């Protein structure tokens, strides 16, 4: 086979066979196919697309390009969860201990943040002592012991995707549905769970700005999951404003802990219960969604979810007392307030701008090698639909550098839109694919 011929074929809009896709993915992973040919191929895919069969084959080829995790020594149905990422998305930190407190087995690999969205691993590392790098043996032993573990994604998991994603990122070929769906699902399938619940975000802070695109991505990923024999479902959720009120690292862990105490923001709590009830159902531990949600609410009110969070933090070397005293999750001492300059209603908060403000404060990374400051962040006192009076504090910003704080404050100010009419915030759960 020659890569030149495959590029020509895709450019003409023809279908690639399973053998051709396997050959291409293996050749690229090994370094036999150069970046310039692979980038021509990804651009051809952007213009002519891939059908369902090709997308499924690309996913399986990328899954098989490295290690696949064998979770068979863990009894019960193993459930995984994936979010396409957004601003203030601390979901896994509350959701996984909650779901696990009902007996669902969770062996989750998570990523670090890049750009305006944060990553679960960075957020967890805001807990003093918490470790996310562990051997596969320790990871599986922890799930057998306490029911859950979260570790950083290993380099050997779907290496073809890692290489291809880095190439797409610099060749303007990220935003193609088949490429995104196969990229996400290759890692999920390699991670070995029996069931996968996907949280596909839609809105200004999400990868998919338009609802129709988010729905198409959800459908593509669910099809791939089912084709690979997994119980897979997706929820399409709102990311038109930040999730909850906290954006940063330590500050988001505080909010996740409060949620497990029943004191979380309404939108975030809704999301956690929606995803959680689907995970519990996938694990066969509830009769229906209502039953699953009731069980989750009980686990919050009787303290079992919080107790499981403490077990999880301890097992990974962290200080579990942060769950009782969230002030131990230190916030930066510099504080700036964003005040409303007029009366009215918050009509819009440009979501990715809030993520960029957190990044500017040092809460995220622009390039992979950047260090994160866990103590900086933003707390949104006012969200879409809230009434404000001139002078009201709409948001507070925690910083360790006045110049960065001032620059972020200016940007945050521009992200808030106040008008005369009250706008109802969008529903958290927009749709579902199963
Ligand atoms: N996240 C991924 O893992 N892959 C993509 O292609 C896009 C988002």
Overview of this structure, please?
This protein is α/β, with parallel strands linked by helices and 434 residues long. The chain has 3 domains: 3-49, Transferase, Pyrimidine Nucleoside Phosphorylase, Chain A, domain 3; 79-323, 3-Layer(aba) Sandwich (Pyrimidine Nucleoside Phosphorylase, Chain A, domain 2), CATH 3.40.1030.10; 331-419, Pyrimidine nucleoside phosphorylase-like, C-terminal domain (Aldehyde Oxidoreductase, domain 3), CATH 3.90.1170.30. 45% of the residues lie in helices and 16% in strands. The protein is built from 16 helices and 13 strands. The strands form 4 sheets. It has a 4-stranded mixed β-sheet, sandwiched between helices. Strands 6-9-11-7 form a 4-stranded antiparallel β-sheet, sandwiched between helices. A 3-stranded antiparallel β-sheet has the order 10-8-12. Strand 4, helix 10 (211-227) and strand 5 (231-238) form a beta-alpha-beta unit. Helix 1 runs parallel beside helix 3 (35-48). It is globular, with a radius of gyration of 22 Å. The two termini are 38 Å apart. 53% of the residues are buried. The model has no long low-confidence stretch (mean pLDDT 96). Bound molecules: uracil. Uracil binds next to helix 9.
């Amino acid at each position: 086979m020659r890569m030149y011929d495959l590029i020509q074929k895709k450019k003409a809009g023809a279908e690639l066979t399973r053998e051709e896709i396997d050959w291409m993915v293996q050749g690229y992973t090994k370094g036999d196919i150069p970046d310039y040919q692979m980038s021509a191929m990804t651009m051809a895919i952007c213009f002519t697309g891939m059908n369902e069969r090709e997308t499924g084959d690309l996913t399986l080829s990328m899954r098989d390009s490295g290690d696949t995790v064998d979770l068979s020594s863990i009894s019960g149905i193993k459930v995984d969860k994936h979010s396409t990422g957004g601003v203030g998305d601390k979901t896994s930190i509350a959701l996984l201990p909650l779901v696990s407190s009902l007996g669902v087995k969770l062996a989750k690999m998570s990523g670090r943040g890049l750009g305006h969205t944060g990553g679960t691993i960075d957020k967890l590392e805001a807990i003093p002592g918490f470790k996310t790098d562990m051997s596969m043996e320790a990871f599986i032993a922890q799930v057998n012991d306490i029911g859950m573990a979260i570790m950083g994604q290993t380099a050997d998991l779907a290496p073809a995707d890692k290489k291809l994603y880095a190439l797409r990122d610099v060749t303007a070929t990220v935003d193609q549905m088949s490429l995104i769906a196969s990229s996400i699902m290759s890692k999920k399938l390699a991670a070995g769970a029996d069931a996968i619940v996907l949280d596909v975000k839609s809105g200004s802070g999400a990868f998919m700005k338009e609802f129709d695109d988010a729905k198409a991505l959800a459908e593509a990923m669910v099809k791939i999951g089912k084709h690979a024999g997994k119980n897979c479902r997706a929820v399409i959720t709102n990311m038109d404003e930040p999730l909850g009120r906290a954006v940063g690292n330590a500050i988001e862990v505080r909010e996740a802990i409060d949620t497990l105490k029943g004191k979380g923001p309404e939108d975030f709590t809704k999301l956690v219960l929606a995803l959680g009830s689907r995970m519990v159902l996938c694990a066969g531990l509830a009769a229906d969604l209502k039953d699953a949600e009731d069980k989750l609410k009980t686990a919050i009110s009787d303290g079992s979810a919080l107790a499981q969070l403490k077990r999880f933090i301890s097992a990974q070397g962290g200080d579990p007392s942060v769950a009782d005293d969230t002030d131990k999750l230190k916030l930066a001492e510099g504080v700036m307030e964003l005040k409303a300059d007029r009366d009215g209603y918050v009509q819009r908060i440009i979501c990715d701008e809030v993520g960029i403000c957190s990044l500017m404060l040092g809460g995220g990374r622009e390039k992979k090698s950047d260090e994160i400051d866990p103590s900086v962040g933003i707390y949104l006192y006012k969200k879409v639909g809230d009434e404000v009076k001139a002078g009201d504090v709409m948001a507070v910003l925690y910083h360790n550098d006045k110049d960065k704080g001032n620059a972020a404050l200016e940007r945050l100010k521009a992200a808030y839109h106040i008008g005369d009419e009250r706008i109802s915030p969008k529903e958290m759960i927009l749709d579902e694919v199963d």
